[in-house]
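Hi W.,

Here's what went into the run:
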Amino acid sequence: MSEAEYPAEREPEQHRPSAAVTPADTADAARLVAFGLQPKLLPARDAEYAELIRRHREDPAFARLADAVAAGLGLVVLEVSPRAGMAVAAAEDSVFAVRMGDYSRRAASDSTDRFLHGLAHLAVAAMAFPRPADLADDGYIGRITVNGVDAFVRQACRRLEERAEETGENTDPATDAPGLEAAWRVYARRSATGATKDARRLAGSTTGIVGKAVGFLVDSGFLQRTGDESGGTYRTTARYQLQVRDLAGSAAMAELLELGVVPVGDGSATLLPPDDDAADLDLVADAGLPFHS
Amino acid sequence: MGPPNLSVVTASTAESVPHQMTTVPRPVAPGPAADEGLARRLKALACTAPLHDLDVRKANLAGEYSTYAMAEVALAAIDLVTLTMDFDTGADHEQIVARLQPRVAAQTPGRPAVEHERVARWVLENLINVGSVDRGFRAVYGTFGTDGAYVRRDYDFKLIEEVPGPGGSVYLRTTDEAVNVLVGALDTDVTSAQIAAEVKLEVLINRGRLADAQLAAEQARYRTVQYAETLRRALEATRRDVRAVDWLRTVPDMINEALDHVADRYRHENAILTNIRKARDEATEPDHKRRAAELVDIVKDCIRRHTQLQSRLLEAGPLFRAEQDRQAFATPPARAGLDLYGQLIAPVLPLPVERAVRVTDAFFARGTGQRTPAAVRVGDLVDALLTPPVEREHLGAEMPEPDLVATPEDSRFSDEQLEAALELLDLPHDAPRRLSGLLAEARRRDSELPYLVALLAVHAASPPVGTAYRQGERRLLFAVDDGTPLDDPEFGGADLIVGAALLDAAGMAAERTAGEGAAHRAGTPRAASAQRTATTAKQEEDPR
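Here's what came out:
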C-alpha cells in the first residue's frame, strides 16, 4: 500500500464495514508480520517497515488484520511500536518455536545439560534486568557479560552451599537418584571453563553454555554485542525486555507455582540480600544503598 | 545427648546403649558426629585418589612409563599452580608444563625431552580430568541418615580447575581441596594457622634449623595464597553486585581486618627477612647459606603477595562508590515488575534438578525468541551447490608506504668528535699516558673534545673486562689511579694513567671453551675466569 492512498482510506475507516478488507490490505498486514519475523530489523532503519508500524498504530482495522495474520501463523504479538517494531513471539506449538533438541543435541538426552541450558537463559535475563523496576522500565537497557552471568550464578550457588553447610545438611546426592540432586549443585560442579584444542570456549563448561545462550539471543535480536571483555559484553534490546516481561517470566512463574513453590515479592529487588539481621538496614533506606531484606 | 524424656524410653534401653549393636534388632547408626567425621575423612581420602590413580594408570600408556613417579609429578604440579596463582588470574597451562619438565627429566635423565613433556602434560591434564564433562572427580561414600538408613552419596571435587582470564584465555587454579591435600588436613582457621607457622619459623631460625624453617615458610606461603583467594572472592562479589554484600558493616570490617592483617604480616615478615638475611650472611656452611637464600626469596614473595592484597583492599572503597552510583541513582520504578532473581532463580536453585528443569524449560521455551524455518527450493539448492567458491585474497590490502620523518640529531658529541677522541686514546700498549696530557692535546683540537676524552677515560677506569673476554677482543683501554691529583682548568680528580692492554685472544678462547664446560659441570661462574684475565691484563701493563 503506497502512502498516497493511505490518507484517503483513513477517513471512512470508522463507518466502513469490516468486509471492506482488500487483498492488498491483507498483503500489507502479512508484510508487517514478515518484518516482525526479522528480529534484528528496526523500523528506524526501513522506511516501509516504519510506515506499516504507523498504520498499525493508527488504523484499528489494519491492526486487527495484522494481529489475525500473526495469530494464524502461531505467533503472539507482544508489542507494535517504533522502538521494538512488530515484536512477535512464537506460540508453544508454532513452527517458529525453538526446541531444546534443536538448540543443543546433548541437552535433548541429558536432563542435567537441559537444566543448565535453561538456567543459563534465566540467569542472562536476571542479570540483564536485576531489579523488578528494570524490567518494568521501557527505557532500561541492561548490560551483561558472559563471565559476569556465570559468576553471578556461581555466587548464588555458593551462598546456598554455605547455607547448607551452616545447617549441617549433606547435599551430596544419593547415587541411585541423580534427579534429586539440588539444582545449584549441578551448576556448581560443572567447570567454569576449559582449554580446548582450538582455543574456543569449551561447549560443556558453564561459560560455554552461557556463551551459547547469549549467542543465540543475539541471533534472536534480543541482545547486541558491544565488546569482547569478560567473555563478551552485550546490551539488551526492547524486544528482549518484552519477551522476558510478558511471556517467559510469567510462564516460568506459572510452572514454579504448579510445583508448589510460592515466591512472594513486594516489587522491590531481592537480588542477593544480605543474610544477617535486616533490622538495621532501614538506616540506609534513603542513603542510596540498595539493601533489601 | 540429652537425658531421655519420653515415657516410652525405659531404663532398660539406657542400659542397653553400650551393646545396642547386639541387643537392638536393627543396628542404629553411630552418632551423627562420628559419622560426619568419617565422611570428612573419606572425602579427604578421595582427594588423594586421583594421584594414586595416576601411578596405576601409567601402565596403560603406550610406551614404557613405569619408571616415572606420577604422584610426585602431580604433587609438584599442584605446588607450581598454587604458587603461580595470583590475584587476577591463575597459572598458565603451558608455563606449568614447561616448569614441570626439569623434575620429570630428573626422574629419567636418559629419555628424550619429548617424552618428558608428554608425561608432564599427561599428569596436568589428568589433574584437570580433561576427559570428563565436569572436568572434575567423583567419589562415592556411604553415610547413615537420621533414620538409620544407609545412603550412598556422590562427592564431587576438583583438584585443578580452569578459570577464564582476561582476553578469553584460560588459567589454572588449584582448588581448596587440592591445597588441603597438599598441605595436609587444613581444617583450621586460616589466620591462626598462619601465625602459628610464622612463630614456628622464628624459633627454627633461632635454633639454626633452616631446613625445617624453609618447610614452615613454604607452608606459610600456601596459607597466604589461600587467604588472598578468600578475599578475592569477597571483592569480586562486591564488584558484581553492590547488594550482594553488606557494605554497612561486614565488608568495611572485613577490609579493616584484612588491612590490619597485611600491616601485621608485613612487619612480621620484614623482621623474619632481616633475621634470615643475617643468618644467610653469617652462615658458614654453603648448604645453610643456600637454604637461607631460598628462604629469603620465599619470604620476599610473601611480602609481595601482601602488598598486592593491600592495593586491592584500598581499591575496594572507590569501586563500591562507583558501583553504588551506577546502580542506585536509576529512576524509581514506574510499576512493579517481576523480580527475576528473587522470584525465579532463588526459588529454583534449591529444588531437585528434576523439578527445577520444568521451570527452566518453561523459561527457555518462551524466552529464546523465534526461529524462521528454512524453506529451500530445489532450483536454488542446485545453483548454490554448483557455484564455485569465491577466490580468497591471500595477501590482503596493499600496505601504504610509511612516511618516515628524519629525527633531528641531538647527540652531545658528533661522530667526528668521537673519532678524534678514539684516535687520541688509541695508545700503543707499551706507552700509557697521563689524562692531563690527553686533555691538553684534545683541547688544542676542539674545545668540546676534552669532555668526551674525560668521559671515555673515566669509563676505562672500570674496563668491561667480561665483555672483552666473551667477545675475544685483542685490546682493551684501561685507566689506573696512582694517586696523582689532576691539574686542569675544567676537570678535577685523579690524573689517571690511561693505557691499552693487549689481551691474549687465542688463550682466552681456549680457556673460554674449557671454562664453559666446567661451568656446565660444576656451575662455576664465568666471572672467576674473567677475573683471571683481568689479572693477566694488569701484568701485561706492568712493564711500562
